[in-house]
């Protein structure tokens, strides 16, 4: 016999949090594409695009990280492992994005290849954060 401690579907994100979480992935992905375009063409404008896209991802990502932090402390202490993982992935995304912004602040030629690698890692972390965030949080476990 299967007994559920507290039945219910996965708990979705708050709509405003979902909107904030929707921005970092495409912005960091756009920065990665811009870095690839710069690597193949060496037109400085592609490096400028990357810098602006990274700045946008950091701006909106800051609010998503703050929302996740508040949500982490707002919940009870029981069963918040997934919330902690979600917050840590978002924080790692923001931290590496900030380092990436500092790398992209250098001369365009000096951003390669570190900027490309950091953009790829930041994009993967943004994808992981979106995956965890949009998959919902369960309110109980099945025993």
UniProtKB/TrEMBL annotation:
Keywords: Membrane, Transmembrane, Transmembrane helix. The chain crosses the membrane at residues 12-32, 52-72, 84-103, 115-137. This is DUF2231 domain-containing protein. Residues 14-133 form the DUF2231 domain. InterPro entries: DUF2231_TM, UCP029509.
